[in-house]
């Protein structure tokens, strides 16, 4: 019996020090060019990433950047049309059919960014209709608002007792004026963005900022990205997941003024697109493991599972990279570092 206090103390320590962990998967741009649109409308959009669905669904929270509006039967001037050809267009003015959203939801996506340079490709009405279809499919979004709405700019997710606030902004809207203030802009609204991050950090376990920034096709972040990243970190962001360059940019850890280490993926590249070069077709699923205990909430681990976009005929879909000799693996090794890379088949064996 003399050992009982020690046993009880040990059990008490174990109980009080238990930690909750959530697994977040994040991908880059959902960019549906014409060949992908045609296949998706014919066979279903999930066919474009079918091999990845188990991993997308396995995560507690799955995020992606929705690169363009989903505005049913609106033409490129934002007017109603009866022509499918006029309604659902690709580059340079994107608009996707509503079935894309149900495909994302069925695949396991929980939250998307709607703040990007194509957000106004169907003008303000397009944003309104996009929000309608997202709400109908119960897919959370951040970065845009309906015309005249008092809706919040951010999205919330909760899993295993850990609350995450998601906040998206974009550096521009391709010259289309945001006349009704429906898009959160990283620079125009910088003061608002920073204040929102600070407020959300007080009421949530973590804030993840998803800026649409940088220069297309550039492999390294520019000064503006680095400056904004530091400001987001200082305001209270735990992670910053960028998009827009259409290729993966380096991962980094920066130190906030609070002393917290903040993870930055300057660009997650394309999740899916019909762009042709290796850098545009090489991407992956980023896994963030966020741990919460009595002392702190922090990112415990980061993994990156490489993928490659096949752009040929019937093979037009995103596939896993399952070899360290694959060109996409070798490319990503140079860009983000091999310390983050894990093949999908290996990740299944991790605890």
Could you characterize what this model shows?
The protein is an alpha/beta fold. It has one domain (19-347): 4-Layer Sandwich (Purple Acid Phosphatase, chain A, domain 2). The chain contains eleven helices and 14 strands. It has helices at residues 4-16, 34-43, 53-58, 84-87, 99-107, 123-136, 190-203, 223-235, 278-281, 327-336, 344-347; strands spanning 20-30, 61-66, 111-113, 140-142, 155-159, 162-170, 206-212, 239-241, 251-255, 261-265, 270-272, 282-292, 297-310, 317-320. The strands form two sheets. Strands 1, 2, 3, 4, 11, 12, 13 and 14 form an eight-stranded mixed sheet that branches. Strands 5-6-7-8-10-9 form a six-stranded mixed sheet, covered by helices on one side. Strand 12 (282-292) and strand 13 (297-310) form a beta hairpin. The longest helix has 14 residues, at 123-136. The protein is globular and about 60 Å long. The two termini are 36 Å apart. 47% of the residues are buried.
Question: What is this entry, summarized?
Answer:
The protein is an alpha/beta fold. The protein is built from eleven helices and 14 strands.
